[in-house]
UniProtKB/TrEMBL annotation:
Function: Essential component of the signal peptidase complex (SPC) which catalyzes the cleavage of N-terminal signal sequences from nascent proteins as they are translocated into the lumen of the endoplasmic reticulum. Essential for the SPC catalytic activity, possibly by stabilizing and positioning the active center of the complex close to the lumenal surface.
Primary localization class, coarse: endoplasmic reticulum
Similarity comment text for this entry: Belongs to the SPCS3 family.
Name by which UniProt lists this protein: Signal peptidase complex subunit 3
Matches recorded under InterPro entries: SPC3
Organism whose genome encodes this protein: Medioppia subpectinata
A GO cellular component entry from the record: signal peptidase complex
Amino acid sequence: MNTLLSRTNAIFAFTLSVLASLTLMCALSTTLKEYNQLVSVKIVATKKLVKNVADYSAGRERNDLGFISFNLDADLTPAFDWNTKQLFLYMTAHYKTRNNALNQVVLWDHIIQRGEPTKLQLRNQHTKYYFWDDGNGLKANDNVTLTLSLNVIPNAGLLPISTVPSIHSFSFPNEYITKNA
Ligand SMILES: *[C@@H]1O[C@H](CO)[C@@H](O)[C@H](O)[C@H]1NC(C)=O
């Protein structure tokens, strides 16, 4: 049958399978890519203070609250390939306390859309989120590690999350500050 309808149907089905296979190839082309190994990131904490204040979300106990500022130099250009739609970045602090072998606190995040500048140069950037400890584990803590993680949001495919291998460690002071930071 050589009707207009059957020809249209054949063209439509063919177009659809071409698009589907292109999308699949686009997704597969970046599945094994280790974006975290390709970017360069340097973080340095420039201010580190700790207060002991009432945490109303924890029944008014007095817990440690950290205040840090940081410099971030990052070149995320290699994370933008043909399949990258946007990049979600977040910075996490990792540390050990008497109560917990591992504490992780997300302190800051940032989204880079395709087409926006892919190099970041931040100076004395404040954190976006509170750095609460669930006890008194920040004062005099001598190994707090900052890492940057990437979540690559692709046009097609998986949403890989990975952490950049370069890390920065710092110590909190031995004394609480009492005036406003
Ligand atoms: C600091 O902590 C990190 C993990 O959070 C660990 O890899 C590193 O070995 C520690 N450094 C020291 C000097 O304990």
